Here is the input.
Amino acid sequence: MRLQVAAVCLIALSAYAVDAGHVLRGYTPEDSAKEINWEQKFRTMPDAARIKENMRRLSARPHHVGSPYDHDNAEWLLEQLKSYGLDAQIEQFSALFPTPKSRELELLGPEPFTAKLQEPPIAVDPTSDQTSEQLPTYNAYSRDGDVTAPLVYVNYGRPEDYEVLDRMGISVKGAIVIARYGESWRGIKPKVAAEHGAVGCILYSDPRDDGYFEGDSYPDGPMRPAEGAQRGSVMDMPVYPGDPQTPGVGAVPGVKLIPLDQVKTITKIPVLPISYADATPFLKALKGETVPEAWRGGLPFTYHVGPSTAKAHLAVSFNWDRKPLYDVIAKIPGAKYPDAWVIRGNHHDAWVNGAEDPLSGTSAELEEARVFGELLQQGWRPDRTIIYCFWDGEEPGLLGSTEWAEAHDAELREHAVAYFNSDTNDRGYFFAEGSHSLENFVNDVVKDITDPETGMSVWKRVRLVDIANATPQERAEIRSRPDLRIPALGSGSDYTVFIDHLGVASVDLGYGGEDEGGGQYHSAYDDFYYYTHFMDTTFGYERALAQTAGTMVMRMADADILPFQFSDLADTVHMYVGQLQKLADDKREEAKERDREIAEGVYKALYDPKKTLVPPPVEAIPPYLNFAPLEEASDDLTDAAKAFDAAYAAAGGVAPAGLNADLIRSERLLTDSHGLPNRPWFEHLLYAPGFYTGYGVKTIPGVREAIEQNEWTQADVQIGRVSVALEHEADLLKQATKLLPAAD
Amino acid sequence: MRLQVAAVCLIALSAYAVDAGHVLRGYTPEDSAKEINWEQKFRTMPDAARIKENMRRLSARPHHVGSPYDHDNAEWLLEQLKSYGLDAQIEQFSALFPTPKSRELELLGPEPFTAKLQEPPIAVDPTSDQTSEQLPTYNAYSRDGDVTAPLVYVNYGRPEDYEVLDRMGISVKGAIVIARYGESWRGIKPKVAAEHGAVGCILYSDPRDDGYFEGDSYPDGPMRPAEGAQRGSVMDMPVYPGDPQTPGVGAVPGVKLIPLDQVKTITKIPVLPISYADATPFLKALKGETVPEAWRGGLPFTYHVGPSTAKAHLAVSFNWDRKPLYDVIAKIPGAKYPDAWVIRGNHHDAWVNGAEDPLSGTSAELEEARVFGELLQQGWRPDRTIIYCFWDGEEPGLLGSTEWAEAHDAELREHAVAYFNSDTNDRGYFFAEGSHSLENFVNDVVKDITDPETGMSVWKRVRLVDIANATPQERAEIRSRPDLRIPALGSGSDYTVFIDHLGVASVDLGYGGEDEGGGQYHSAYDDFYYYTHFMDTTFGYERALAQTAGTMVMRMADADILPFQFSDLADTVHMYVGQLQKLADDKREEAKERDREIAEGVYKALYDPKKTLVPPPVEAIPPYLNFAPLEEASDDLTDAAKAFDAAYAAAGGVAPAGLNADLIRSERLLTDSHGLPNRPWFEHLLYAPGFYTGYGVKTIPGVREAIEQNEWTQADVQIGRVSVALEHEADLLKQATKLLPAAD
Here is the structure.
């Protein structure tokens, strides 16, 4: 609806436009016509073959933080960017990056077994034998430790899994937990295990989740083979990402470091990731009851909860070194607003060869930069400054992006218009997550991108695929809402510091969903052979990523009035407030129901002499919360957004002085410099990675997590803070509306 | 609510009762007191140790139809019943029962494999080595056949699985299908496969469904081991059960037989059941796409849909012999109403040793008969005639019960009051399925049975367990409805001929749900060792079954007014009518939605060059149906039932002449002698096994299956027939109400 109104107005105003066709939002008809021309030119130019060659070069050797080839790649990227005519440089930082000194995992007892902890070379895969350069399989920021204890299986190791264990009468106190990868971010698993008293944590890749259950195993297919293992960071990033020794500050030479023993983001217990070939003897050693159905993996035996009678011995130690980070940064100065920065980024470091993660994104991003170089030669100049970033050290903990952004904190808070991120990119359907003030912008851009396989716009395609997979209720919304919803950003890539710490409107985008994914995630087999045999083999979606991200950057950089839109934001905030109310109601109903069932004797009826069932404790009924301030504020935001969007549409792309500055501030107003409870680094009040989900987003996190954790006073306080921020946002929009000519 | 009203009235009337306590529904206070006294006596007497010894004796050797030990068991049962002082005899019938002459299954091609088709003896299990007496693993009533063809995997082989294959562009025409056991009755799998053009059918037991995925494998635990296989009948029983050569007629000597080549209930293609050890090479030979997630089993490789390039060779031939059936029948003549028969049954034949199926039921039933013998000696006499039946030939196709009931057709239609069936019985929660005119009766009886593990009544226990497992909506109903709902009867045991063919009110009952079940279903390992190690090891629920079934039989036999109740029936019919309306609406909405998606281009958006996706055909939108006659009739039934139940309560158990005869007729009026469309043997208009589900019930089957199969004219006709029957039922109740004194 909103979209159609806007379109009608723009068409009415476009009588004097260069052509009577489509006018881009935020552009005058003349500027729109010019922009469309340049954008169309841009989109013809990305070359799938070049992107493939970028990937081949960048993935030729292991290139993790601190490795020679990581530095070599950075220098090569710099050289390429310079060769495109761009003003590029390497900005160097440093960060704590532990690497394994020793790793040992044994099963003791009558059938002893020593885990191999090796991903063997595979004959057909030419880079898989670069073992001397590969990082061993390990979890970065695990503490050192040497523990011997019985094993307990904890499913995915989420807080709710421990509730199931409580009902089964199983404690992990003093035990080593064995958890499967998946469902929650890996760093949550040792964190929650330690909170429950475990002394060690083994993570393994179950074939149910990314192995033969999902599809053929590598090298016959893309899925994880028996000895494949997932490396990865277990840094407690929901507290803060980046260099653990310099939270909030850029890790430049001379910076003051927090002593290692005071770092909060290192795990409390030792952790080690293993393959399912290594995990099998440990899982088979578990005694006790058969686990609930949802806990069972794909291995060919019965999963028991434990504990094991045989003990496991886990010993890991690390070199706690600081390593250099090479961020490669290229700038295209803005012709009109050089102090307004549109930033684009993708990391270049990997766990090993990293063809899919991250080079499927990096290789496309580099091609975008090349095309911009060509357009510059053809005479195009962006209105705003464009900054292309190739981050180092994303894998261990978003190190390169975080240190860069922390080092440029004040400038970015002043100048940054928006940040566009990508990472892994595959074949399939467009996806985006991001700031909801950009939801309409993202929708608009991807209506202009052609899907390589179907020839329809990628917007139309994802909309139809969403319809195919939706519930009837969801379908009705998709069909009636002009813009497709974009999910909120959690964490897991380099947008985190921009959106969560600095309050820069951000979008993470890419393609995927057609090929079985994740099979070689953080494995030595995520390499050029793998990607070119099983993933986007034609590089059609690599090209589409370059077209999409490039168009976003260009359209944002050149707009007369920044194409922010707030009706979608207000609609989203309303949805979140409704979810919070439902969450509080559901928690209350659940507590009432649980207490009622205990009183009725349900747990007595469920008694089974062959099993253990511990009834849940009787729980205090959650109180009613006062949501009125949030309801009031989101209504005010809705009204202000509606008025602003109407005035914006009526302005015909003619920007009054001060309006763009207001728009740049709009995302900042959704932050609070005191941050979230217990994690002040996270300043955004609408979006954050969950304290107990890791990558998974919690929207309106202060309120939501307080409700989830039964902290009712905290919930009230947080409702107040968020309401104030939303009222400030509404005020900003009212002020901005006044700058515009009155709408009809 | 209804229950509470009734209870109040009865208490008011009970001032002159023997004690002021509980008065049984349908009893005068004096008779209630006497009955309660006898019932309490009855329930103290069943002896778990005797039941265990019954099982030990009956399961000592394989005892399938036609085997020496089957006959031996029948003679032993006869002897026991006589020794209890009962008037017992063997009634002998005969039936077609094919047994294997030869069975061959090979995988051809580069990696040839010959299936073993053997369940090997297991050292700790003393009867598992009786291989010379065991029936081989096979499916009875598979046709002879010798076919060589590629393989296609069809998941559970249900009609909806073939729709998925259609979308994947896979045809089974000319192929041998390999289907896993589970989700639908086995006989449906070759039937549907043949309808789709398959030339052969392999059934296998996937460890996901009854093997290591569910629990430890035999003999470490109860679940099916690698070489365990499920025998079973594939007779097309939804057309008619019993001897395939004598439908509708008792197979007594001299009966006219339908020639074999005209029998409709033999499969159209050869079928063979195998273990997962045997299935593995065939499944691994499948090429083509990875199957959808819901199709994947528990074996440690990727499941592909096929076809295979290697062909399979399946050859089976059978001895098409007629075998004797020995039904053991014991009667206790009724002192007051000898021509009113209360019938109790459980089969005694098995596929092999059959400790769980059926002897867990048979052994308890025999103990009931013993206890009745003792009570007779103590002076108790039932008002009505009680008939205890031990059926032969249930496993191949409900042969013994069907032939007996067909032979006694006219008598049963006149005299049978109710039939109480049991079969497999395990540890756990009470369950019952049956006629809804007996729903209230079943609820009342099981309030008086004490659960061996918790000491609460089994009614209370199952109610609380239902609450624990219910959705919030279901919970609200359980808490507010006086009676727990009992599901309707489908098929799969000996009640079928009684309820579906003769219209005798029936109940199937038992216990279960605590132990992992079904692991040795129809295997040679379903034996005494298995049952006494993994199932109801204390025989507490065997004793509870004897107490429950015995109390039902006794209370039904002795009642002054038969304890039928019709408000529950009317409520259930209303629920079914609502379901039918929703089914019709959902089908219409689904067709509209599918057609809309095709028009929108959803299937174009889902195009994936690496996969095959065949869009569904555009479908005609189902018309609206006239449900008014059914709504009218079910309202009339509700009114009539309410009036009757109130008058019944007010009568205080004093039976007017003719009332009990009316009540016996009440279930008959729900049948129609013309039967269901295309299967006239099935006469009940409210309940039938589904034509495409086999055991699974279809309620109001004429209408429901017509809607499911898009037969709209048929649906209209069937709505008319069912409405007439319901109006007749309402008229009967009105007439019966007039016999009773006017209620307040």
